[in-house]
Amino acid sequence: MVLDDKDVKILRMLQENSRIPYNEIAKAVGLSDVAVIKRIKKLEKEGIIKKYTIVVDPAKLGYKNVSITGVNVEPDHLFNVIEKLKNKDYVKYLALTSGDHSLVLVIWGKDSSDIARIHREIEALEGVIKVYPAIVLDVIKQECFFY
Predict the structure, then answer these.
(1) Whole-prediction pTM value?
(2) Which burial class, exposed, middle or buried, applies to 10 when counting CB atoms under 10 A from its CB (0-12, 13-18, 19+)?
(3) N or C: which end of the chain has fewer CB atoms below 10 A?
């Protein structure tokens, strides 16, 4: 599917507020409500819009530390490590990558000692070679939180 400028504007508005009324989107992009609804339905059908969700502030939920963590894993153990990590409540994002690390995770921790404990727990998993944590100090831009 090829997106035009109106589709892109609709997506940006929905990313900003997925509860925005169709008539507000219609006014902003110069279409009728019905045309906007049809475009959104097509974006959903094509898988461009995968789901509607909320963005929460981890600190307001008691998670004072967030870590973006690279994890290098021995190839023979990769899928076992993925299975273990994807079921952990503290893992909020898990991606298999082709970059510097086998896996990239976003982890929420109650405080720095909790994050340290989590990193040690991950490092102790069979097949994990090394954990590369990066503690988030401040979020400068958050247009869409990851993929």
Answers:
(1) 0.81
(2) buried
(3) C
